[in-house]
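Why show two proteins at once? Because comparison is the fastest way to build intuition. When a single record is shown, students tend to memorize it. When two are placed side by side, the eye starts asking what differs. So, the first record is below.
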Amino acid sequence: MPRPCNTIPPSISKSFLKHIYALKVSSLFAWLLLSPLTLVYTSMADVIPSKDGKTVRTMPSVIKRSITAYGGQAKILSLKSFLFEYQVKSVSPKTLEPIFMRTYFKDTDFFRSEVIDGRVRVITVLDKNQGFVEVDGTKIARPAKSLSPLRNETLSFLRPDLLLLIFSKYRYSGHIKEEGRSLEQVLISGFIDNEYIRGRLSINSKYFFVEKYEFEIERETKDGIGIFRGQNHYLKYTQFDGFKLPHEIISRRPTKTSRILVTAVALNKGPEKKIFQKITEPIPNKNKSVN
């Protein structure tokens, strides 16, 4: 069973359920999380490593220290399967009730996302090259390419440690101060499942955890190639069974800012059938906050 992190997830609002029926699955995640964002890219000629006293930061040292902060590459990749339960609540515009979601990953082959409101469930499954969406018991087959963006973007806010490993290009762009915190900035780019992604990682200079992920995704739509912009801000991390995972995330889109609160986690375990049948009961949280 997943291990709760303090709160019991409430039911989904009726307005959300009406909206989810009207949405295409490929745009569901964008509705929740994507936001406008201005990315300022630095040319190679402008990249000058910043100085912190006598220390000169470089991209390899920043990425290496960040990977080490998460336990090292072997530790990061040892997490083969994981289940997250979390709340998503709109903070702008403000809503009274959050929605409740469960997401399960196994290796790179299997992904399941579930939205629950007692008697009503919306389930999305991607199993290798096959996928489907099920709403209230009605199942509709979907091509893998329409579901992989949902999987990849969900993974980006639940597993920021993987952002240090999956891109083909990383380039250090300097040191900044933001709201009193020191951040090392690394530009990233590469293809993920045939979608080109470019953006920036802001890494905390003290703890070396990823604090912010800003991105632009070139995505095929019915009207051609579209640009989807977003930002994940990882406010708090918690340690689960030796893994540093985000506990609270802020994400933004053009007309909405959402707060994501992880309420329970199960690592390296297969999902029990009852996990997807009813809301889990709370048990004492034995995990520790790490920032």
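Second record. Ask yourself what differs from the first in the token line.
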Amino acid sequence: MSITNLPNIQSPLPGPSTLAVNVMSRNQAAQSAVLSLLRPGGLLSAAQIQRQAHLTGWSTRNTLARLQARGLIVANSCSGTWHISERGRAAAAANQRSYA
């Protein structure tokens, strides 16, 4: 059988664009969950955030780094805790309004 005579087989795997959208939506969901946890105020460690947001260790670290890079959360290096910034509080409030 030559290559030109092969049957058209559809791959059961999603295409690259579908995977990118899934990863993006998971990242956004994780970021939203972390902001929601930190929104009431107070300080939480990465381990507390991981448990309360039901995230993996990698996802927690990645999410914290992304939110910190965007200026939405701030790390307290002495105690190893995180808190939400004023910018993050505004973003969390805007996110809540979009779901209302």
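One difference worth noting in the second protein: Residues 22-99 form a domain with the Arc Repressor Mutant, subunit A fold (CATH 1.10.10.10).
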